Structures are given as structure tokens and as C-alpha cells.
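Dear colleagues,

For the upcoming journal club I promised to circulate an example of a predicted protein-ligand complex. I picked one with magnesium ion because it came up in last month's discussion. The inputs are reproduced below in full, followed by the predicted structure.
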Amino acid sequence: MSTLDALIFDVDGTLADTERDGHRVAFNRAFAAAGVDWSWTVPLYGELLKVTGGKERIRYYLDYYNTTFQRPADLDGFIKQLHTDKTRHYTDMLAQGMIPLRTGVKRILEETRSKGVRLAIATTTTPANITALLEHSVPPIPESWFEVIAAGEIVPVKKPAPDIYQYTLQKMGLRQDQCLAIEDSENGLISARQAGLKTVITINDYTCNQNFSEAALVVDHMGEPGQPFSVLNGGDVNGFNYLNLELLKHIHANSLLADLAVKS
Ligand code: XBP
Ligand code: MG
């Protein structure tokens, strides 16, 4: 049976809790600067998160939530400019240290990397956002820790399509059964599962009621020694109360065995 050779991490909601107090605020700052009176409240933003990608999210908002807005002749250009401005606001917020990594993330990256597990990122977010997040984490995480950083428009279709995970696997020369994906959302889980990847979910406030029945494990966060996670689905954590390489290997092996049992 395959060993666990690589971990592929989502970014927003997984490495850091970026949506409510990061991306949402940056969108609102860009709207104000552009002179439009749109305000994405916390609950509204939760609905807009159905659509991945910032430019796609703005268009979805206009199509379904603000249909009376007088659209400029060059709507694509208008959205593109808004989004460029939003990225600047967002990366400024990261530079000010406003969005830390989630519990356990740094420890997991350090442990798995030091023990020879290959690391990658598969996300819909803009590449500059990843650079800023890693650079301004304390202490900074070198981008070189990740063998592949697959982000944004590097593939034609964003999550929940499987393209970004398929791209990552292809770049790493790995089969899906050699990897685990780490995600926070149903869109991310669908994307990873469609690419054939076993997936661990760390929920957040926006994703806690989503459908994670296809996940190998669902926890509230990665945990730390002395700061245990709560297991929300997929019970067998081998006696551990925080994620570490041994537990990730156990989850990976058990979920592959479960597939074999179904086939036999
Ligand atoms: C979540 C997303 C992203 C961000 C916005 O991505 O949907 O689109 O909300 O990013 P992830 P941009 O796959 O990392 O969870 O505005 O840069 O598109
Ligand atoms: Mg996410």
C-alpha cells in the first residue's frame, strides 16, 4: 500500500483564518476607495463564499445580490481593478501582522518537512496573498518549503473543480494515493476528492455547517500539545489529540484500507 509522501495544503481558512477579518475587510476597503456603496457584512460574505475566487465573487454579488447596480461599459475591467486594489489592501493587512497562522500549522509544516514529507499548496487565492502570508508569519515561513505553489489562475477552473489538485499532483509527479489534502471548506473537499485525494478538514466559523461526509477526518483545528483538537467526524485518531505526522500517516493508511475493503 502507498506511503504518505506529500501533504497538499489549502490556504484560506486552512493555513490561516483569512476570510472574515481579512479578505472580506479588504474587499470593503476596495469598494469604498472606488466610490461604490457596497458593504459585505459577515453573514453576506458567508453566502458569497459559495463562489471561489475574488473576481468571480464580485461578479456573483452583482448577478444575484446587487442586480440594480449601473454596470460600467467595461465591467470586466472594473472588476479586475477592484480586485487588484483588494489584493493590495489584503497584503497590507498581512504585512501589519493582522492574520496569524492557525493553531498547529507551523508545527505541522516543520515536523513533516523535517521528516522528509514533501509539501505543496493548492489554492484559489492570488499568488501575492500566499507570499505575504508566509513572509509575514512569525517567524516567516520560506516559500521554498513548498515544492509546488499552485494558486489562482494557474488553472482555467477554480475549486470545486479538481484542476488545481490535478495540476499539483502532476507537477510533483505523484499519484493521489501518495498524498493527503488539508482543507477547510466543502468546495475544497469536493475539489480534492474529485482529484482522488484523501482529505483532512479543519473547520472554521464559515464552514462548520458544511457537508464533510467524504472527509477522512474532520477536526476543529490542528491542535497543539496541551491544546487538543475536537474530532467532529472520522473518529479514529489513534489516541492523539493533535495532528502530527504519525496521526496523518495513520489516517492516510486507514482511508486507503477502507477503499480496499469496499472493493473486495
Ligand atoms: C478561498 C477563496 C479565495 C479568497 C479570495 O481560497 O475563495 O478566493 O477568498 O482570494 P482557498 P482572491 O482555496 O485558499 O480556500 O481574492 O485572491 O481570489
Ligand atoms: Mg479554504
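Two points we might discuss: The pocket of xylulose-1,5-bisphosphate (ligand 1) is lined by residues 10-13, 19, 23, 52-54, 87, 123-126, 129, 159, 185, 188 (CB under 6 Å). The longest strand covers residues 118-122.

See you all on Thursday,
B. R.
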